[in-house]
Give the backbone structure.
Amino acid sequence: MRTFEDFTGIAIGTSTAMEGPVAVCPCCGRPGVREALPGGPGEFVHVETEELFGDGMLVLPLDRCLLVASL
């Protein structure tokens, strides 16, 4: 079963069950959820897809902004 999570329609400050609080993306200004990436500053996910398998769940971002580290 595949589902889609669109954070752009959720109010800023709302806490989602699995992803955390919805915030304003510093790159594009749209609502999203900040995700940490190993070895980098992270990304803001605006839309993602989730698919449930027998051995776990696969979550893939469909719309995201990669954050750039400040100098």
Q: What stands out?
A: The chain has a mean pLDDT of 90. The two ends are 42 Å apart (CA to CA).
